[in-house]
Amino acid sequence: MSTYVPGSPSWFDLGSPDVAASVTFYTGLFGWTANEVSEPEAGGYTTFHHDGRLVAAVAYHQIDTPYHRPYGDGEHGMPAIWTVYFTTDDADALTERVKAAGGEIIMMPMDVMDLGRMAVFADPAQAAFAVWQPLRMQGAEEMGVPGSVRRVDLVTADAGRTAAFYRDTLGLAAVSGEWQVAGRTVGGTWELGVTGAVRPHWAVTFGVGDVEATVRRAVELGGRVENPPAVTPLGVRADLVDPHGAGFSVLS
Asked: Taking the C-alpha atoms of 70, 194, 196 and 80 in order, what is their torsion angle to the nearest 10 degrees?
């Protein structure tokens, strides 16, 4: 991946209360390598790479809202959570569209060094998401293959209401349970409760070569199984939770 059409999911990062522990878990699970961004203003932001290509990142929590606790409040403070970023060509204009469409502004647009510009919102059903206006960094350099994000899905109990919101903000079209941009599928929708989530959120699914082996490895590393491996129309999928409470899925 080198560029992304506006409205496409393009970046994924984990907010964690313990970056070092999260690095250990995900590098051990997916075979990623991790590199801490050297600039002091990055605040320990650490990128994950698969076969040398940028796929995701982890950082210390910067936001704590009910929208960022999809799996509950956690046993020990703020739980970890994966955030999905969608590409935009104008984060400020998009912020105004979010307001007009009934969404909530969690973080106003801000510059991220010389890499890009970001903002964080919540849709009317209270699912949080972020947007990325790229400058030097376009987003993930690899998607859709084992070792990277395979797909994203909106977990919600109000698909009708959110369809209008994402159409009017990100330009996403809801077609038979899928999200499309310019006729290309970029995500899907799950009914709230399928993954055991208690609040609406955008879920990430990582591609793997062997779901059963990945599940065993996740448990060895301190994660837990939310839903065991099962055959789906897209392949074998399992839903997992990492040691700090972040939910995610794996799909072969």
From this structure: -40
Q: What is the pLDDT of residue 64?
A: 56
d(CA 245, CA 72): 9
Counting as low any pLDDT under 70, the low residues of the chain are: 1-2, 38, 40-43, 62-78, 193-198
Residue found under tokens 């994924």: 12
Note whether 154 and 162 are within 8 A (CB).
Answer: yes
C-alpha–C-alpha distance, residues 128 and 32, integer Å: 26
CA distances, 116 to each of 35, 50, 87, 147 (Å): 19, 22, 10, 24
DSSP the chain: -----TTSEEEEEEEES-HHHHHHHHHHHH--EEEE--SGGGTT-EEEEETTEEEEEEEE-----GGG-TT-S-SSSSPPEEEEEEE-S-HHHHHHHHHHTT-EEEEEEEEETTTEEEEEEE-TT--EEEEEEESS--S-S--SSTTSEEEEEEEES-HHHHHHHHHHHT--EEETTEEEETTEEEEEEEETTTTS-SS-EEEEEEE-S-HHHHHHHHHHTT-EEEEEEEEETTEEEEEEE-TTS-EEEEE-
* Gap between the Cα atoms of 212 and 194, Å rounded: 19
How many residues are given for the chain?
Answer: 252
Distance CA 145, CA 118 (A): 26
Q: What is the pTM of this model?
A: 0.92
Other C-beta atoms within 10 Å of 121: how many?
Answer: 26
